[in-house]
Every structure is written in C-alpha cells, then in structure tokens.
Amino acid sequence: MRIKFNHIIILLLFIISFSSCGKEDAYVYPPVKLEYLTAESGPNGSLQYVVTDDGERFDVSEDLSGTVIASDSSIRIVSNYEILKDADARGKKIKLYALLKTISPQPLPVSSFTEGLKTDPADVLSMWLGRDYLNITLSIKMHTEKHRFHFVEKSVDTDVTTGYKAVHLQLYHDAGNDLEAFTRRAYLSVPLSKYVENNTEEIVVYFSVNTYDDGLKTYRFDYVPSSN
User: What residues pair up with 190 in beta bridges, in sequence order?
Assistant: First the structure.
C-alpha cells in the first residue's frame, strides 16, 4: 500500500511593520508569543480553543488566519498568539495572529513503507518534549521540490518484569532529489500517546535524524505521559 503524505514544507513568516510621525503616534507591539499548541475546533470547523504544552487552556477570541478544519477535531499548530486581558468568567482568551499546521502523523512501523525508507538529511535546530508530543524544528536545504516527512517506528521494546519501555523512532525525509539551494524550516510534532498503556509512568524515546554534516544522530528523551 502506498503511503500518501499531505504535509509539505511551509515557511513560517510573521512580519509586523509600522510607521510613526512622532512620539505620540509610536506603535506599541502586543505581547505576542510563538509556540507549539494543540488546537480544537467546534461544530463549524473554526478553532474554538487551544491547549499549551504546559496544559493551559485558552478560548480563541479571534483567529486572524481564518483556519477551518474538520468539525470537532484537533490539530497541532505553531502559532503567533496574544493572551488577551479582557478574559471573562468563562476562562482565558487568546488572539491568533498567524499559524501553520505542524507535520504530525502517527509513527508507522518500517513494514508500512513499502517503497523503502527515505532518510534524506536535515539539521535539527531544536527538539524537546511537549504535552504528549516530541516537538522538532528542522532546517532543510531545498529549492523547488516538495519535501515529504513521516515518523518511522523502528522498534518498541518492553521489559515485562520492570515495565520499562523504549521506543526507537526515525525521521522519514524524502527531498525528491531537490537542489540544496537555500534553507527553510520545517515544524514537526510527533504524537507519543499511542505508546502509553495502563499505568505507564515513563517511556524512553529515541529519535534519530540523518544530518547533513554528522550523519545519523540519535536524541534521547524521558517521556512522562501527561495523565500521570
């Protein structure tokens, strides 16, 4: 079965410009944050609220991106947002200025990649554990081709005596024989909750990436499920 990928590299570009005729007209920048978030939609598909990786929930007062997804569903996003000060009794509110959907498919076993594993290089700018996700910001060299990403589940090992679980994942990256003309960023968020079983307290996650200069590099993280 051929695996279809719906995610492509998107350049996240937020530009704020202003002009001033005098001190009295000086523009004051809003306190905007840029973070990975989990966004939930309502019956009409518009984003109703987001949950930060610290577990804090905010109602979406305004979404300037106009994003619409499937009704009553969730997505991972990277977004510029402002926490509003006029929150009412129903909870805290935010204003979304711009966002993009992260690349967040469920990891698949090696056998699912019937055409073989693609491990074209990418450099890791940052990688850290969020709320049941492993967040990754990559730098890739590209020109005009679409770059395709996925997460490969190399192995899942559990010690039946201690309950210790180790998950070995690897980045799938198909550059499509693209020229390495300039760099762009890719934003990925690996869902980890599928590896949580009853009373799972901690999982060791190993994530490997084929890099441009150093070859295969493996990163280790101790994942504690958010339900604990």
Answer: 134
The two tokens of residue 116 are 């073989």
Rg (CA), the chain: 20
The total number of residues shown for the chain amounts to 228
pTM of the complete model: 0.83
Backbone angles phi, psi at 194, to 5 degrees: -65, -20
In 3D space, the residue among 226, 204, 7 whose CA is nearest the CA of residue 104 turns out to be 7
Q: What tens digit of pLDDT does each residue of 64-100 get?
A: 999 999 999 999 999 999 999 865 545 699 999 999 9
Strands 108-109 vs 182-191: parallel, antiparallel or unpaired: unpaired
Query: Smallest Cα–Cα separation from 47: which of 26, 73, 29?
Result: 73
DSSP labels for 85-143?
S--BTTB-EEEEEEEEE-B-PPPEEGGG-TT---B---EEEEEEE-SSEEEEEEEEEES
Note whether 49 and 73 are within 8 A (CB): no
> Rounded to whole angstroms, how far apart are CA atoms 180 and 120?
11
Quickly list H helices, the chain.
none
